[in-house]
Amino acid sequence: MNIELAIMNVLVLCMLTVPHEFAHAWMASKLGDDTPERDGRLTLYPPAHIDLLGTIILPAVTSLLGGGFLGWGRPVETNPSRLRFGMKGLALVALAGPASNVLLTVLLAGVSVFTGTLFAPLSEFAARAALLSMYLAIFNMIPVPPLDGSKLLLAARVPPVVYNELARFGFLFLLVAMSLSNLGLYMHLWSVAGAERIFQLLSIAS
Q: Which of 11, 78, 163, 165 is buried most, with the most CB atoms less than 10 Å from its CB?
């Protein structure tokens, strides 16, 4: 049980959650839905996006237990009927969050690479944050509510009744999958591979 790692994960997740959820709100706004703006989500103000259970409690517990890393921010509500392109627009809104995490991975990796010889603690923190950001991009693509990947099911015309039933047990499914399978390990390995590739490209560029 690594308490220091758990605290670090929660702090970094809080930092990454804000631009992730903002990206959802921003994309929805660009596609014509003003619901996120009316809900106060079109902002970079942290408390607007942090969920006590999903952003703080669960990440701390799963980090301590070593069963992968489970966490999310407060979901951004959208109205598909207001979105340009309808359900396809909903898919774009859903993908905006993980896409922001990939972009953040690149930015944080850049900070790590270019501060490595100047300020090692900042470089190490940025590297840890870059890895976690890539992990979140992959994790959020799992097609289970409340994760972003689940919205792709709606865009693929999965019947709402099926989606709603899945949503009822989505949280439990994620807990079981992360606790009793190697899903968390696989996502960690994929995120490490993706982050390392970005680090390699930035190192060559520098």
A: 78
